[in-house]
Amino acid sequence: MTSPQMAGKTVLVTGATNGIGKVAARVLTQQGARVVIVGRDPAKTERMAAEIGAARFVIADLSVQAQVRQAAKDVLDQEAQLDVLLNNAGMYLNQRQETPDGIEMTWALNHLGYFLLTQELLPLIRATPQARIVNVSSAAHTMGRIRWDDPEFRLGYSGWAAYGQSKLANILFTRELSRRLAGSGITANALHPGMVATGFAHNNGSRISRVFSLLRPFAKTEEQGAQTSIYLSSSPEVAGMSGLYFSNEQPIKPAPQALDDAAAERLWRLSEEYVNR
Ligand SMILES: NC(=O)c1ccc[n+]([C@@H]2O[C@H](COP(=O)([O-])OP(=O)(O)OC[C@H]3O[C@@H](n4cnc5c(N)ncnc54)[C@H](O)[C@@H]3O)[C@@H](O)[C@H]2O)c1
């Protein structure tokens, strides 16, 4: 009998209590990985960890920097290796909100959450041969641009623009991370899961929510939507591939603004300022 594909590997999945992250965590567990999930709500996360068969769970609101650091510390203290970090937790917000750190929520969770968790876990990731970092972005990045002078939309908020910016940031972050990790054996890739019938932006009264409801019959199921995340986390086909953007298990070209290396470097420095305040 051959051993399961991910036997002996440790995987951390964020946003694993719902949607794409939940399916990815479940399938990677079935593939033999030791899966640790991160969730916000203690009772729900405990229940989902049991349902998924996860090895362990960590509680954190990933929009709050102290909680990201605490979650990473928990993983560094408890885990001997980290083969895959799947940054997946994200949301769309109709109205502008700020985190307890005083940072606009979409920027704080969708971008800085990925950035800071990855930074904090890098010592363990670096100690794990051939580790992979997988960042869930979106085709919504094509409509995004980085507001260098106002990334938190203090001058006027649009949920769609904030979401597009954050998903563009996911790809730029992945590019710069990949460049910085060159030669280490660690890979970093981003992906679009497709339009997926999850709880994402569901029934929140926004225009996007209404569009999502209309398109729901044409959307991917959660199982289909998790495929590219699972593929990048576990397939031998992508070993050594890095700095790329995938959709439907294929590398594809993102929008031109996501291929701007100067912007990727600038975003890195801006993000460092945010997490080192
Ligand atoms: N559903 C789609 O059509 C679609 C399309 C493109 C990209 N995406 C991306 O896929 C990813 C997963 O989305 P989904 O569709 O599964 O959505 P979902 O709403 O079903 O799941 C999102 C997960 O993130 C978690 N989360 C939200 N805020 C959090 C916080 N502050 N701290 C910790 N966890 C938090 C939620 O608890 C949930 O588990 C997101 O990054 C999203 O941007 C989704």
TrEMBL record:
Record's keyword terms, sorted: Oxidoreductase
Molecular function, one GO term: oxidoreductase activity
Gene3D superfamilies documented for this protein: NAD(P)-binding Rossmann-like Domain
Catalytic activity, EC: 1.-.-.-
InterPro entries: NAD(P)-bd_dom_sf, SDR_fam
Similarity comment text for this entry: Belongs to the short-chain dehydrogenases/reductases (SDR) family.
Protein name per the record: SDR family oxidoreductase
